[in-house]
Amino acid sequence: MRRILFLLFGILLLLSACRQTPAPEQPTAVPPTVSLPTVVTEISATSAPTGQIFVPVVPGEQAAGDSYPAPSPNPSQGEGDSPPTPTPEPAYPAYTGPPLDRDQIGIQIYLHRQDVRELLRHFEALNVGWVKVQVSWKLHEPRPGEYSEELFSELDRLVAGANGQGVKVLLSVSKAPEWSRPTTEMDGPPGDYALFEGFMRTLATRYTGQVAAYELWNEANLQREWNGTPLSAADLVELMRRGAAGVRAADPAALIISGAPATTGINDGVSAIDDRVYFKAMLAAGAAEFIDGAGVHPYGWANPPDAHAADATQVSSSHNNHPSFFFADTLADYRALLVDAGAAGVPLWPTEFGWGTFENIRFEDGSRAAPPAGSEFMADNSEWEQAVYTLRAFELGQEWDWVGPLFLWNLNFTRALGPEFQEVGYSLLRFDDSRRPVYRALENRGE
Q: pTM of the entire structure?
């Protein structure tokens, strides 16, 4: 019994000693299966409280197009403070100019087999006053007197929805049906201009009081748009005259906009006629006598909207040596031609304009797409520049009282075309439907 008591007393002494002498603290182990990534923020040994393992947050892969910097150290952070919260950069440039008039802002869309309700939501988000839709005559009337119910039903829903939102509609009509042309190669006018007058009357009758304006033809100074007969501004004017007569017979209040030439810098008379030469010839043939606005396509290629061909230095690496490649030059030159022709009262309608970039354009396998041949200039512009240039162009257009609404090309041609087409470089939506900075900039421009 005495031995047992001595043994119990010894155990009690041992337990008391263990409570009085703390055991060394063991660090928290990192599971061997977890590999810590390289940390972009340098952390000092004293920045974490004693006895803790500081595992800084490593930024993950950013969403395409968003501009968020990696977290950076906070110089004022003291020992024991919480780790700094990174401040993201804006995902779009902020517009700081005078309020942009909604009625001056238009957007061109791709309509076929699209959700019209979704398109209307985009109109509301972007707060546009106009929408432009291309009407391909050859698709809407594939056979004489027979009309595509599918295409017209889509257009009916779009026009009705836009009117319900107070968004005005511009229909741009071109591309004669094959049955009406002397050739089926490329696109071009009908052999008998009375056919165009009839189609425009049918269109205006269907949308009387619902479509605010009609643009008659598109880039007719290009062979690909006027094939089957020689390029001729006078012939285009006659075609437009017949088309205008058809519209006004059904809807006298609708505005008539002349078909805009393409800005190409080419003047060989076969593949293209220089747009200034062509526009001057249109005015000489009497275009200003029956139109309400003169269509113009003042694309800027990769040049800023304020830049000019005569500037001593250029930002863009190509397409910088001819006025046709500059937004401001094109508008100024067309205005001068109108004034010289005694038609100063005719406003210019930029029915297409914009800046393309292939930043964050990818193929389905995730690989980056490059601008297609002939569009290499798009590599000179980032998505951020695309947004800045677009905002400035709308601002400039509003400053000039001789400029009508401007239609940005384009909202959603990524729905119709793949990364191998240059048109997608201009789209406000990417292939995954995420918004590019230019979309966000317009959406948040303020009023």
A: 0.81
